[in-house]
Structure formats: structure tokens, C-alpha cells
Amino acid sequence: MDAAEVAKHNGMQSCWIVVNSKVYDVTSFVDEHPGGPSLILKYAGADASEAFNEVHTQQTLDEHMTQGQCLGKLTGNPSALAQPKKSTTGNTGSENEIPPIVSMVMTHDFEPVAKALLSDRAFTYVHSFSSLEDRINSYHRTWSSLSFRPRVMRNVEHVNSTRCMLSHQSRFPFFIAPMGLAGSMHSDAERVVARGAAQKATHYCVSTSATLTHDVIMESFRTAQAESNMRDRSQLFLQLYVNSNQKITQDFLRRARALGYKGLFITVDTHILGKRIQDRRLQSRELIEAGITERPVGNLVSDGKDGKAKDGRPQTGGRSRPGVISQALNWDDLKWIRKEWDGPIVLKGIQSAADAKMAYDTGCQGIYLSNHGGRQLQDAPSSLETLLEIRSMAPEILGRMEIYCDGSFRTGADILKALCLGATSVAVGRPFMYAAAVYGVKGIERVIDILADEIEITMKLLGVTDLKQLSPDLVRVPHELRMSSRL
Predict the structure, then answer these.
(1) For 445-466, what is the mean pLDDT?
(2) Do residues 306 and 278 lie in contact, with contact meaning Cβ atoms separated by under 8 Å?
(3) Which of 82, 244, 343, 423 ranks highest by number of CB atoms within 10 Å?
(4) What would the pLDDT profile of 198-251 be if each residue is shown by its tens digit?
């Protein structure tokens, strides 16, 4: 297909793009694109390879494009293609602006550096949340509102911070949380994270919607382990979005199990995307830039047939297409999932003591207390609030199943507070993504070192030498949090 001809198809009515030297007619897909139509229209008649390869693999394209949509190989002079439409919503920066990694002394030091260097779209995808800014800040404040009761005059010359997670030892009581489509932050993101995790013997939970294929991620992880001098060995776990097509999920689980992924973390709070305010504002700006000024913005949009709204259409960040994530997921589905996955199962997205008890009663090995990083239900509880509710209303499950937490953990001290209250381990997500975006593998290692150092310092100042010595007696919980957990 001649480049000059491709350049003519540069609008909503006829939209062709070039990806990896092949021409695709994506006209029918413009309105269905998970990132919103503006992202595709930006590359109408142009070469979209670089932008596409940042967040997708060729396999993704092959799965979603029909044979008739591939118009053949690009021919002629590539300079005849249209130029991608310029965006005013992106940040600009250069490598010269990156501060030395030694200047990163706390995990939240990585965020402003990443924000200055990344495009608005990439940063917003990771940073977005469903509530207003003050509510998100309150999530950060919940863990810092707890104070310690240090013990003194104890020999703390040597401390042990190892923790077993789903029968697999880790050097530290934290692991790297799953983050979908991390390629928007770094073209090789999951491989970068996997290498850093392996070299520091830290567990990593890989997202279903990873940018790279799961065999590539596992291969990189194993290679890094072989190259490492670490005596300890970490593992890769798998986060699962249950597909509305049961067979797709079954096939995916079989492949993941064969590749060597260990525990399965089933996300149970994302059957529909929450209203992510930053995403909505960014989408609005992009639509205006694309000349689309009258259009609903959000998950509820007209299907064009009977005027009724259909849900499940994520608008930015390249998330799943409508209907991909099952909205019918229920407790009975654990039966067929277990037939395909004979390893441990953890439910991710537990936000109440009642569901924590249900997970225990149905034989799950663990629960993962999470509000999806504040990205789903507005005014959802923090993981601390849910953990306190479990201690009050379902204390019988404590010590009988593993409990993981995420959400606004930024220091080793906060991690130890969660462990004092009964958590097995803590997941940390955003700091690792920011660090990977700016510093690659070295950034992942730096975040791990920062948290490990803070954990050791805090343990010694608390007067404990082993994580087994942590108990609720070592933390003071504010009265209002104690009361709210009993409602």
C-alpha cells in the first residue's frame, strides 16, 4: 500500500495507520479504542509504530485486527505519510534533567522526576484515582496517623527481615505490586521490573495486562536470577483479570502455570472501571485537540443502536475493551478456576471483613486488601481501615490465611505497621513504576534498597530483631480509626 495513499486516510470517516511497516484500516475501531478516539486519530494516515510498541505487542494487534483490516505492507516513500498530530498535553524533558540516582533517598522522590519526564498520558495512567485529591491524601495519612511504641535496652545488633509468602521465602516483607500496561512508562518496563526484583530477591506480581508477553517476562526474570549472586530466590506471581470468555482465562492460566508463575492473585474489584478523574480531564483535552467537542466522556457511552448506554469502556490508559473483564464474576467461579490452577489463590480487592471471611470459608490461601490504588470506588476504605475491621469483626481468620495490603505505602515504617496489625506482606506499586520510568533496573533496585534500609532502621528502633516479634502492642491506633472499624 503506497504511503501517499495512506496519508489521504487521515480522519474519523476513513482512518488508516501504519504499524511495523504494515497498513491497517482502523476506521471501525476508532470509536472502540480503549484509549479514546483521539489517540488513534492522532496517527491517522501516519506511522503509529513507536506509540503502539510502547504499550502493546504484535500479538495484541493480531488478536484484535481482522484479516480484512490489514491492507498489506507499506510501499513507496515513507516521508509521504502524514505526520502525527502534535499534542499540547504532553510534558517535555530530557535526560539531562534526571538527577543522580543517589539523590533519591525516599520512595516518593521518584514521582516528581517521573512527572517531569513522562507524557501526561503515561503519568496520568499510573497516578490517576477516582476520588478528589483530598481523599487520596487521606489514604497517605492513614498509615502515618499510627504511631509506634518502641521498646529499648534490647540487643538489636542483628535483625531478620525475611518473610514467607505463599510458601516462598523473600528477603523482605514487601513485594512489587501488579501494574497493567507498564510499557506506557518504559518500553521494556516489565522486563526491567523482573530483572530488578530477581537481582534483589524480591517477589513480583505480574499483571494480566502486562505490555510484554508473560513468557518474555519470565525468561528475563530467570536470566537475571542466574546472573545474580543472591543466595535467596524470589518468585513471580500472577495477577488475573477474569475474562468474560471463560475459555480465554482457562487457556491463559494453563500457559502461566506451565511457565512457572506461582500464586494467583484474582482481582475482584474491577468488573467496571471507576470514574478516574484525571483520566477524564485528560481525555477531554485530547478530544478537543482532535476536534471532537460534543461527546460523552467516561465509561457510559451510547452504543449507537437504541440510544441506551453500555458500560465497561475505559477511556484512557489503553485499558481493556468493553466486555473483556467479566462482570459476572462470583464465588462459584472459583470452582472452575481451581481446575486450571492447582496452586495457591489470593483474592485481590477485598474491602470488607465480610468478604474476607467469605474468602476464608471458600478455601482461598490469602486475601489482598486493596482499593485498587484509589482508582475504583470513590470513598472506598483504605487497606488500613479494612485490616482494622477484620481484626474487630473477623479475628478468627488472622493467622489462618495470608493477608496482603497495598495503597499509599511509601516507607518501611508503614510496612511494619501493617505487619504489626496482622498483614503477611505489603505490595508497593507506583514508586516502582516511577523509578523504572526514570532509571530502569537501577531504579527498581534503588526503591528496594530504600525500603529495606528503612525496615532495618525501624526494626532496631522498635527493639525487635525478627518480624515474628511484631505485634499490635507495638502500634497506637487513633481512637477514631478504632471506632470506625467497629461500625
Answers:
(1) 98
(2) no
(3) 423
(4) 999 999 999 998 989 999 999 999 999 999 877 778 999 999 999 999 999 999
Q: Report the alpha-carbon distance of residue 445 to residue 233 in Å, rounded.
A: 15
Query: CA 258, 260, 266: angle at the middle one, nearest 5?
Result: 90
Which band of pLDDT confidence, cut at 50, 70 and 90, is reported for residue 128?
low
Helices assigned H by DSSP within 235-275: 246-259
Q: 269 near 367, Cβ under 8 Å?
A: no
Which amino acid does the sequence have at 288? I
In the prediction, which pLDDT does 142 show? 78
- Which of the four pLDDT bands, split at 50, 70 and 90, describes residue 152? very high
* Grid cell locating 296: 460523552
Domains for the chain: give ranges and CATH numbers: 3-80 (3.10.120.10), 112-273+321-484 (3.20.20.70)
- In b/e form, how buried is each residue of 125-162, taking b as 16+ CB within 10 angstroms? bbbbbbbeeeebeebbebbeebebeeeeeeeeeebebe
Q: Per-residue pLDDT tens for 81-123? A: 988 876 544 454 444 479 999 999 999 999 999 999 888 777 8
Helix, strand, or coil (residue 49)? helix
Distances in whole angstroms, Cα of residue 368 to Cα of each of 208, 245, 399:
16, 24, 14
For 298, counting Cβ atoms within 10 Å of its Cβ (0-12 exposed, 13-18 middle, 19+ buried), the class is middle
**Size of the chain in residues:** 487
Helical ranges in 341-429 per DSSP H: 353-361, 383-393, 412-420
- 168-170 and 163-165 strand pairing: antiparallel
Q: Label residue 482 by pLDDT band (50, 70, 90).
A: confident
Q: What is the DSSP letter of 244?
A: S
How many beta carbons lie within 10 A of that of residue 449, not counting itself?
12
Chain centroid to CA 86: 28
Instruction: Quote the CA–CA distance of 113 and 119 in Å, as a whole number.
Output: 12
- Hey, how many other C-beta atoms are within 10 angstroms of the C-beta on 69? 16
DSSP conformation class of 372:
G
d(CA 468, CA 153): 19
The residue written with cell numbers 474491577 in the block is 270
Identify the three-state secondary structure at position 42: coil
